[in-house]
Amino acid sequence: MKVVALQGLHGGTGTSGIVAALAAALVQTGQTVLCIDLDPRNLLRLYFNHQWRDRRGWAQAVAAGQDWHEGAFTLGAGLDFLPYGETEPRGRTAAFHDWRQRLAILEDSVYGWILLDIPQGGATEDVRHTADIHLRVAQADPICHALLAAGALGNDDCLLINRFLPSSTLQKDLHELWQAHYPDRLVPRVVHQDEAMFEALAHKRSVVAYRPQSLAAQDIQCLATWLLAREDLAE
Amino acid sequence: MQTDANISSFQQLSLNNNDEDISLLLDKSNLKTLNYYNITQIERLAPIRARWPLLSELILTKEKAVP
User: Fold this and answer.
1) ipTM of the predicted structure?
2) Residue A230 contacts by C-beta under 8 Å, 6 or more apart in sequence?
3) Shortest Cα distance from A214 to chain B (angstroms)?
4) Does B60 touch chain A (CB under 8 A)?
5) pLDDT average, residue stretch B43-60
6) pLDDT band at residue B2, thresholds of 50, 70 and 90?
7) pLDDT at position A63, please?
8) What mean pLDDT is reported for chain A?
């Protein structure tokens, strides 16, 4: 069982969309995946055709004294999804710890991959140590560059560029700078800017499920292949 | 027969010899601190930094900031 944590370098980098699409791409290759939303905004569920008014989720279950996995949903063969759930703000911090212990009770044979959608600024050390790989999702913009210069990238983090626009001189320049500076940590494939990502959310699906031939979907399928090929994630 | 390993070690030896030659030249020219490994990269990235004032000001770090 491999645990992948995805977290935006700053807010609004499109991390949840990538988590949902990556889950679908891994399932397409025959993997079994559990997606867990650790973001109190509780939005990842929208990519999985979840009802807006449905309050269920792991934090809501924990707050109600139930097991954390009570709020999980099965989305066809190979893909389970655990929303955050609607909770009172007071209960959020208390419910955020212990993920290492929580995931330890899952048997390796049930899930090949666990994908964690972590809110920006919300990665506790517990969650960081739980993950086998920590992907920081960035846009090739000056804010992300300033954050990188300020040391926002953890020592073992990998950097994934989302919403890349090849026609932008600034984005191309930033990409080249980051390639030169982080040759071992920059994910070798970017996810391109693609309207299909937004249309997919409007259809309550991931881009891989909604339009698998789109550029963004193909980028994320390559990301799934890159993860599957990584030796440090091999059993 | 020459194997991949032999080729690799031969290339490494040749690199080391070149390194020594270059180091001697730099010593003689009083350029001991010149980082000649990344000259091509530095030259390639210079116009990028010149184009964007913020990028020339910021230096990327590989280390996580201590909170």
Assistant:
1) 0.76
2) A133
3) 31
4) yes
5) 89
6) very low
7) 86
8) 90
Task: List, as own/partner pairs, every contact residues A196-199 make where C-beta atoms lie below 8 angstroms and the sequence separation is at least 24, other chains included.
Answer: A197/A14, A197/A17, A197/A21, A197/A163
- Do β-strands A79-82 and A113-118 pair in parallel, antiparallel, or remain unpaired? unpaired
A225-232 own/partner pairs: CB under 8 Å, 24+ apart: A225/A29, A226/A187, A226/A188, A226/A189, A227/A2, A227/A4, A227/A22, A227/A26, A227/A113, A227/A133, A228/A26, A228/A29, A228/A31, A230/A133, A232/A132, A232/A133
User: In this structure, which amino acid lies at residue B24?
Assistant: L
Q: Are A155 and A45 a contacting pair, CB within 8 Å? A: no
Contacts of B39 in chain A (CB under 8 A): none
> What chain B residue is nearest to A153 in terms of C-alpha separation?
B64
Check residue A124 and give its pLDDT.
Answer: 64
Under 8 Å CB-to-CB from A50, ≥6 apart: which residues?
A: A73, A81, A83, A204
Please enumerate in sequence order all residues whose Cβ is within 8 A of that of A90, keeping only pairs 6 or more positions apart, or say none. Answer: none
Q: Is B53 on the interface with A (CB under 8 A)?
A: no
pLDDT digits (tens, 9 = 90+) for A137-179: 999 999 999 999 999 998 889 999 999 999 999 999 999 999 9
Secondary structure of residue A73 in the 3-state scheme: strand
* pLDDT profile of chain A (235 residues), mean per 10: 93 96 96 94 94 90 87 89 84 63 80 92 72 94 95 90 97 95 93 97 97 98 95 68
